[in-house]
Design brief:
alpha/beta; 5-stranded mixed sheet; 3 helices; 5 strands; globular
């Protein structure tokens, strides 16, 4: 039996599905939701600003209600759903690359969100490789009917 996601009535139009890096310090345990969200909170009071976060192992974390605008998707907050994939940054500013597990989870999350918000455009911020993968998925119509 497949579980369906319940989406309450939206009070705003979703025009964008925004995928971007969620950068944390290198000492953060990216599988620990409290540590990740705590680091990403910044000026936010109760969450990271992303609707969904994806750990380096590909675990999807729901962090913000879809009814609330994003606070992490620059230029797309009011009309977007923000999906952040967690990358670590060391003291020199070097960042880890997106993992294969994260790419797989991003692809699945975007497919599901496209079914919920069929008019939304996918925007990938600063990752041309991931953007190309998602564009190819969309062109090929790769949506699992069991989702």
């Amino acid at each position: 039996m497949t579980k369906r996601m319940y989406i309450p009535a939206m009070r705003r139009d979703i025009l964008y599905l925004v995928v971007e890096k969620a950068v944390v310090d290198s000492y953060i345990d990216t599988e620990n939701q409290e540590e990740v969200v705590g680091q990403l909170k910044g000026c936010f009071k109760d969450d990271s600003g992303f609707h969904f976060l994806i750990t380096q192992q590909g675990t999807l974390i729901c962090d913000r209600q879809l009814q609330r605008p994003a606070d992490a998707a620059t230029y797309y907050n009011a009309e977007g759903v923000a999906v952040g994939y967690i990358v670590k940054q060391d003291e020199s500013g070097a960042m880890q690359k997106i993992t294969a597990a994260q790419v797989a989870t991003v692809r699945t999350a975007v497919m599901v969100l496209r079914r919920i918000f069929p008019k939304a455009t996918v925007k990938v911020i600063k990752n041309s490789t991931l953007e190309k993968i998602l564009i190819e998925d969309e062109e090929e119509g790769e949506v699992d009917p069991n989702l």
